[in-house]
Amino acid sequence: MKATIAVLTLVSVAASFYYFIAGLTGPENMVVYRRANVPVWGVRAWAVLLGVSGVLLLFPPTFRPATVLMVMNSLFTITCFVLAKDWRGGLVEGLFLQIPVFLFLVGRPIFFRG
Q1: How would you class 39 by CB atoms within 10 Å of its CB: exposed for 0-12, middle for 13-18, buried for 19 or more?
Q2: What is the arithmetic mean of pLDDT over 63-84?
Q3: pTM of the model as a whole
Q4: Cα-flanking dihedrals φ and ψ of residue 41, to 5°?
Q5: Containing domain of residue 68, as a range?
Q6: Is 59 left (phi over 0), alpha (psi -120 to 50) or beta?
Q7: Which one, of 16, 12, 76, lies nearest residue 48 by Cα?
Q8: Sign of CA dihedral 21, 27, 29, 32
Q9: Into how many domains does the chain fold?
């Protein structure tokens, strides 16, 4: 269980940082948000929120709020996929939504416990 939680946490942090950088440096390349008519400043705000949730995920006291932010980000992305009528993308993002939900239910990572 420890290894699973550690891997899912690291995957979530890596994905958060990847989309944080992608959203800030090239928001016009984030196709699903452009199709959903999200303005450039909205994509950048989303990217900052996602980056903040990735950083907060690393610290035990802010682990649960970080997972809540990640769930909100996933729901926002699923909404954009639905608005863009990209059902496959929305389904895939719905599957990825299970990672922060699982991490929220676990609480904080076992490897942080003393």
Answers
A1: exposed
A2: 93
A3: 0.86
A4: -65, -30
A5: 2-112
A6: beta
A7: 16
A8: positive
A9: 1
